[in-house]
Design brief:
By secondary structure, the chain is of the alpha/beta class. The protein contains 22 helices and 16 strands.
């Protein structure tokens, strides 16, 4: 599904959500400029009637539940909370001490589990709209307790989505993921212990495709997705055009979202206010493809930094856990990677060799800056700055003290990425990820015999996991125009079982059934790695990682990365579009789009929530081809970093020097390849 926005520039979604959260934490008053270091002042937030702007922050307690904690963790750090006066943050269901002389800000999912006797006053914010029945029940409980004078505000904040990157979002999982009383999990979703691979907490793709899912469960899932999308649209403050394919869950979600926007516009027209702050010029658009349009990006082996980290390491929200073994002892370290990390912000979408090269560049720059400080102050090491003679070096000491915090933070960031890059390199060598990447980049030219040979005889000194091999086979099956014969499929399955796939082979079984039913999409027939002519879409990597790996490892042993990757730039990926990107191009920039993509998107449903249903020609229908400067792409059924990076690269190219193409990518959930294998395996077990 795609949402298209106006030519006037609007802030990234992450910045918009951050602004709403900072305002909420400041008692629903926009924080003063001193607290706008996150660059969020340009986004209007939903506020109560503003009172006098406090000069200093009001000290307060923040009460969270599990879901709202995740929302905050993706965009704010503890210091950000301190800056707006939050001295203590606690869990809703934990035992909490009474602090009757400070106000409390609640940010929770719709609930009645509120204790009104612990704090001086209550600012209650719900991440998603509180149903009318629950609101009335809450009012009755407050009246019964006689604590209504303590309730200062009760607001719906429309914040039930996660934004781990500036233009990437996913919806929060269901409020009660276990749903013990529902068969949605027990029957239609395999539990983590019943699948070969690591299963995600929730999968919309599995709920919407499992044969045992009831109509009620599908309706509940569609309502949840539409509500989450409405929160995203409300946070941007813009009213979109809506485009989506016909005849699947995406259409049902699009129509429900349109109705929610219409209801909001009608309510604001009657009572004033509302969540949409844009005027007549604030019309944009939103596109909803369905996951089956292209399964391969969910499983492909990537070469970009962010996608590699998500695939190889344990990454949840913006926190990465790196496991290392040294002298027989295993240790775990966690790192926060977000837009405040200068190296991550710069290199997340870059190919891994370029990232390693930039580590080298940044380390050299750090050493030069540190040398300048030590030379001017007369000390031999940065750690000796405290020993400077104050009487003779006052000016130099002032300069050193000013520069020291920034240099220290920069060094810590570079150490973080050195450790991550080292771990990635070990995984690349151990699993032959560079070889798998090469094969998948030219997958359209591969034969069943070549795939079998890769399964039987992986590169020397490497051992791809069973999941790696299964991913390769599924990508090949989805990418070739002509399906392998039954005998060839049998041979592939035999090799996969020898590799230890076990019941994971059900994922392959399910993909085969999907292809038999739909023959995939004409856009997805030759997906990852090849264009229609079978040419590579990501460029060559001649010779693999052999020389690079040795040089990288040697430089790490020597304690640096100086001049590590000189001459590697010829191997950087080329720019080609994946199927979802081609669909978006057809909707946002028709003059540059392929004919097949235009033909497919011409059939997309067109919805305009602002247009009255009584207007002649209003209602669902076709739309003229239009050029859009901004858009939101939402994939129903799961998304990933490979697709996200490809879409951002297209937006950068299509925008040109003016930079007017701005795209936000989202999905019901962001899954790594192993999690999506588990989803496919679960569907294969129940189909």
């Amino acid at each position: 599904m795609n949402v298209f926005k106006p030519p006037t520039a609007s802030p990234p979604l992450q910045q918009a959500q951050t602004a709403a959260l900072l305002s909420l934490l400041n008692l629903n008053v926009p924080p003063p400029p001193s607290n706008q270091s996150l660059g969020t002042s340009t986004v209007p937030s939903r506020t109560a009637t503003p009172g006098p702007q406090p000069i200093a922050p009001v000290w307060k307690v923040l009460v969270l539940d599990e879901l709202s904690k995740d929302v905050l963790a993706t965009v704010l750090r503890v210091q950000d909370l301190r800056d707006v006066g939050v001295t203590l943050h606690v869990q809703l269901h934990a035992v909490r001490p009474a602090l009757t002389d400070v106000p409390a800000v609640y940010l929770v999912s719709p609930t009645l589990d509120l204790n009104n006797n612990l704090y001086e006053s209550f600012y209650i914010n719900f991440t998603s709209p509180l149903p009318r029945a629950m609101l009335e029940e809450l009012a009755a409980l407050v009246a019964k307790d006689g604590t209504q004078e303590l309730i200062t505000q009760v607001l719906d904040q429309y914040l039930d989505f996660l934004v781990p990157s500036p233009s990437l979002f996913s919806l929060l999982p269901p409020i009660t993921p276990s749903k013990a009383s529902s068969s949605t999990i027990s029957e239609t979703q395999a539990s983590p212990s019943s699948t070969t691979f690591r299963h995600p907490p929730h999968s919309s793709y599995q709920v919407l495709n499992a044969p045992k899912t009831t109509e009620q469960e599908i309706e509940e899932e569609i309502e949840r997705i539409a509500s989450g999308l409405f929160s995203v649209v409300a946070t941007t403050g813009q009213i979109p055009y809506i485009r989506c394919p016909r005849g699947n869950a995406a259409e049902m979600i699009a129509k429900k979202l349109e109705q929610k926007i219409r209801d909001q516009l009608l309510g604001s027209a009657r009572g004033g206010g509302g969540v949409f702050t844009q005027g007549e010029g604030g019309i944009g658009g939103l596109t909803r493809p369905y996951r089956n349009v292209d399964l391969s990006p969910m499983l492909s082996h990537s070469w970009t930094y962010q996608a590699l980290v998500h695939d190889v390491l344990d990454m949840r929200l913006n926190r990465v856990t790196v496991t290392s073994t040294e002298n027989g002892r295993t240790s775990k370290r966690t790192y926060d990677l977000d837009s405040k990390d200068f190296f991550w912000a710069k290199n997340a979408a870059n190919p891994f060799p370029q990232v390693a090269e930039d580590i080298d560049v940044e380390l050299t720059r750090y050493k030069q800056d540190a040398a300048d400080i030590t030379r001017s102050t007369g000390v031999s090491d940065m750690n000796d700055i405290s020993q400077i003679d104050l009487s003779s070096n006052a000016q130099h000491l002032k300069m050193a003290i000013t520069a020291l915090p920034e240099l220290t933070a920069r060094k810590a960031t570079l150490d973080t990425h050195m450790n991550i890059a080292t771990t990635l390199l070990s995984a690349i060598k151990a699993r032959a990820l560079d070889e798998l990447f090469q094969i998948e980049e030219g997958i359209g030219k591969q034969t069943p015999q070549a795939i079998l040979e890769t399964l039987r005889h992986p590169p020397s000194d490497s051992n791809p996991t069973s999941a790696d091999k299964l991913r390769l086979v599924i990508i090949y099956f989805c990418s070739v125009q002509q399906s392998p014969t039954k005998d060839q499929i049998t041979d592939l399955e035999t090799e996969l079982k020898k590799a230890g796939v076990g019941d994971g082979i059900r994922a392959f079984d399910y993909v085969r059934k999907v292809r038999e039913i739909s023959q995939m999409s004409t856009l997805g027939g030759a997906v990852v790695g090849a264009d229609k002519g079978g040419r590579s879409i990501v460029g060559g990597w001649d010779g693999g990682l052999g020389a690079l790996s040795n040089r990288f490892t040697d430089r790490l042993k020597e304690g640096g990365l100086d001049n590590l990757l000189s001459g590697v730039k010829n191997f950087l990926p080329q720019s080609k579009n994946l199927p979802v990107t081609r669909l978006v191009e057809a909707l946002m920039d028709p003059s540059a789009a392929a004919t097949q993509a235009l033909q497919d998107t011409d059939e997309y449903l067109f919805l305009d929530p602002r247009q009255s249903r009584s207007t002649p020609g209003a209602g669902p229908g076709k739309a003229k081809r239009m050029v859009h400067a901004e858009g939101i792409v939402f994939v129903v059924g799961g998304g990933g970093y490979v697709e996200y990076t490809n879409l951002m690269e297209w937006a950068g190219r299509a925008g040109g020097a003016s930079g007017i193409k701005k795209v936000t990518y989202g999905s019901t959930e962001i899954l790594d390849p192993e999690e999506f294998l588990a989803v496919l395996e679960g569907l294969g077990a129940t189909s």
